[in-house]
Design brief:
Strand content: under 5%
Number of strands: 0
Largest sheet: none
Radius of gyration: 36 Å
Order of helices and strands: HH
Helix content: 55-70%
Structural class: mainly alpha
Length: 85
């Protein structure tokens, strides 16, 4: 009877160790895959985003330029009061 209990406990302990080993390796692989996916996403975000300093306007249409100068002729500042109803 004691021999049977020792064998059962030994097999149970061995199975527990094997399961723990396989779970650790699977979790380690999964963590590596998640980290790699995160790195790829980070690279994609960095390559797709351009810094604001690189924005250049090479051409402004003549019509837009003339209209813009007409709108900015200057003028007086008009003070106003907000009317509460």
């Amino acid at each position: 009877m004691v021999k049977f209990l020792v064998i059962i406990l030994g097999v149970g302990w061995l199975l527990g160790q094997l399961i723990r080993y396989f779970l650790r390796t699977k979790l380690a692989r999964f963590a590596q895959q998640v980290a790699e996916m995160e790195r790829e996403q980070q690279r994609a975000r960095q390559s797709s985003s351009r810094p604001k300093e690189e924005v250049n306007v090479d051409f402004i249409p003549k019509e837009h330029k003339e209209k813009r100068h007409k709108d900015i002729q200057g003028g007086e500042y008009v003070d106003y009061e907000e009317v509460k109803e």
